[in-house]
Input
Amino acid sequence: MAHNVLREPLQLCSEDPMTGYLRDGSCSTGPRDFGRHLLCARVTREFLEFSHAQGNDLITPLPAHGFPGLKPGDRWLEALEAGVAPPVILAATHEDVLLNVDLEVLQRYTFPGDT
Output
């Protein structure tokens, strides 16, 4: 069973749109997940524009891959360093994120109402 950064069972991130590397709504991962889709965030316009400018188009739908495209409300470390990191949903963020980001940093970016 996968766990979140709080060392509890990993919760769903989103089913509308269906998110995650495995397109199962969670931040579960596997050996082929080279993009490391581990962090659940409330996407912002600034984040989407920043990601697009970095060559990571998260806006354009890719139906062949089951990806509907993202929009506000729905590469976090780069965005954090650039000052445009979106809020994080800790309960749905995979514990492997802690290999790269301290829990204290994640907690500063916690989406209001998330525990």
